Hints:
- By secondary structure, the chain is an alpha/beta fold.
- The protein has 11 helices and 15 strands.
- The strands form 3 sheets. A 7-stranded mixed beta sheet has the order 12-11-7-10-9-8-15. It has a 6-stranded parallel beta sheet with strand order 3-2-1-4-5-6, sandwiched between helices.
- The longest helix has 24 residues.
- It is globular.
- The two termini are about 40 Å apart.
Amino acid sequence: MNYQKISVALVGAGWAGEMHAKAYEHVYGVNVERKVVCALEPTLPEFAVRHHFQGYTDNFDNVLKDPEIDVVDIVTPPNLHKSMIIAVLRAGKHVICEKPLTGYFGMPGDPERVGDVPKNKMLRQIQKDIVEIEAALSESGKQFFYAENWLYAPAFVRACQLILKKGTTVLQMRGIAGHKGSHAGYVRYWNKSGGGTVTRNLIHPVSAALYLKRLEMNAKGLPYGVSSVYCDCSMVTERIEKRHIAASPVDVEDFSHIVLTFADGTKATLTAADLYLGQAINAFEIYGNDAVFRCNYTPNDLLDTYFSDGKGIEDELIAEKSDHNLGRQHALVADEIVRGYYGEMQDFVECIRENKEPISGFKLAKEAMEIVSLAYCSAEQGKRIDL
């Protein structure tokens, strides 16, 4: 199909929806029409105007039935991902979907606290769901784009370029992702989010580690694979005076740590938590046999600010997850670009136009989902799982 124009529907108008909407404003070389935004938020009309969407709706069926829409960008709670992905594909449209691909959200007969369900049961159901999604994708003839922004952050992209050019052997990767607790209320419950910090935060560095190691191995003509997964999870804030920590988990973890061992024996050690005051922390370190790289997503030092009072900037978000704008801050600068949201949307719409594979597609979404599902099994069993 020759796309003279690519018409986009955005489903979800929360924080991530804001990042996706801003990213579309930076896309160049492709005629992207922001056709409609679909959400239940009361601020939806304002969101649509602010981000130059032609219209808005609170009915997902309206999106599916619109013949002019080419691609649907799903930025909803994870428990809606699978059904929406399949519905969009069957409607004959391409799919962009935020992480995670899917998850376990409860079945008839489960305890009220879905987080108490045996993790092997979760794994088996997730594997079935992935097969169902993959079948729908194959039958549709459309494309799936995995909105993993870490892969498109300029710092990470440049690190990957240098690693390939230099022929560096990646010995260890270290990632950290987290903050003082999400602003979204649904993340407290497994039946909405499919887990805690593993699926919400840790999946970012997991995806980055999987992608980079595959990239390195493919470039060298060597076999790629993950040989083992070890994970430790806990609910730290359940037993402490939280004070400034905003996390309030019900049946999900607020701390998680994963160790991945790859087929060549190299490692990735990755941590996520809702325990970090100051600002959101997102960083990825790469240690090689001849080079070291540190990718600072947030905070970074592009702009340091100091404010003695908040006059005139009461409504400004100077630093994500900071308690206020006063004093010294590592200020946000073009966050949708620095954190990779623009890069992923640029890649996705170019891939639709040219019918080519994206940097971040279904293969990575599937592998990342399988790894985090195995991680939960490891944490429950208290041992490493060999693949």
